[in-house]
Amino acid sequence: MVDQNVVERIKQDLGSSDVVLYMKGTPVFPQCGFSAAVVQVLSHVGVPFKGVNILEEPGLRQGLKEFSNWPTFPQLYVKGELVGGCDIVREMYESGELQSLLTEKGVATGVNA
Amino acid sequence: MEYAARIRQKLTAGLSPVQLDIVDESDRHAGHAGADAKGETHFHVTVVSAAFTGKSRVERQRMVYALLADELSERVHALGLTTRTDAETTA
């Protein structure tokens, strides 16, 4: 069972920002190559996002794995929906699907963060 | 090759892949968090299987993660994945 407080916390994150990245480290100082790669893609696309450092919150880290049924980090969410981890985000960026997805969901891109 | 062999066995049994490449990238991560002196912590796996037909990227990776749940909780710290169907590789 996922801790209800953690679920509420996740819903709050996802409800207050269109694009949320649960990652190891922070956008400025990622502590994992895969997290760094996703931050880089998001900067290239020019989409503002909220980065959450799961290394600082062990409860959130465990809760997210169960909430999303996804065992690894980073995890990228757009409008509350799990897009995927590093491989998926990179593939979608290279094929242009990530940009289309953001546009479809009404998220502005090309913003200089 | 203990973990690589386990990954191969489970994915072969679960997905009947037409192609399965398992690359141990652990030496590229030696010394950082999640690395283990015994190695076999970081892998990249390419799976081509008909089982992925009609599934989204997220669903495909969940299928692989579910099959490898034990390996991921024991030693494997990072698992890069490329998941394709036969039709997608030839397209």
TrEMBL record, chain A:
CDD domains per record: GRX_PICOT_like
Coiled coil: none
Keywords: 2Fe-2S, Iron, Iron-sulfur, Metal-binding, Redox-active center
Residues bound to [2Fe-2S] cluster: C32
Sites where the protein binds glutathione: K24, R61, F73, C86, D87
Domain Glutaredoxin: 19-83
Listed GO MF terms: 2 iron, 2 sulfur cluster binding; disulfide oxidoreductase activity; metal ion binding
Family stated for the protein in its record: Belongs to the glutaredoxin family. Monothiol subfamily.
Protein name: Glutaredoxin
UniProtKB/TrEMBL annotation, chain B:
Coiled coil: none
Pfam families assigned: BolA
GO aspect biological process, one term: iron-sulfur cluster assembly
InterPro entries linked: BolA, BolA-like_sf
Transmembrane intervals: none
The organism's place on the tree of life at top rank: Bacteria
Stated family: Belongs to the BolA/IbaG family.
Designated name of the protein: BolA family transcriptional regulator
Lineage of the organism: Bacteria, Pseudomonadati, Pseudomonadota, Alphaproteobacteria, Rhodospirillales
